[in-house]
Specification:
about 110 residues, alpha+beta, SnoaL-like domain-containing protein, NTF2-like_dom_sf
């Protein structure tokens, strides 16, 4: 998913997102897709660096906590980096891990 963002492929990024995704403030899958597209349209470059991940696996589900530094050029994402703390929920769907929950806070 990180590679898809950096290569500006919103559709490929969304392949990793479950149909019932939920995020901050009730964000659903459609709203996440629009948010990703907006960032890619508004920024000529998007970079994402992930910090060390803390992974807890419980059967076919996992919780992953990590920090993320986003960089870009354009109107919405500033040239300087933005740092977020992320908690994400993943689920194995027919052998593919899909993101079904994410919460992020700007540090």
């Amino acid at each position: 998913m990180q590679e898809a963002l950096e290569e500006r492929h919103a559709d490929r990024f969304m392949e990793g997102v479950a149909a019932d995704f939920s995020g901050n403030g009730g964000l659903d899958r459609a709203a996440l897709q629009q948010m990703v597209r907006l960032q890619l349209l508004a920024n000529t470059r998007v970079g994402l660096t992930l910090g060390p991940a803390e992974v807890q696996v419980h059967g076919d589900r996992a919780t992953v906590r990590f920090s993320a530094v986003a960089t870009g050029g354009g109107r919405v994402l500033p040239e300087r980096a933005g740092v977020w703390e992320v908690t994400s929920g993943w689920r194995d769907e027919d052998g593919q891990w899909r993101l079904y929950y994410a919460e992020w806070k700007r540090r």
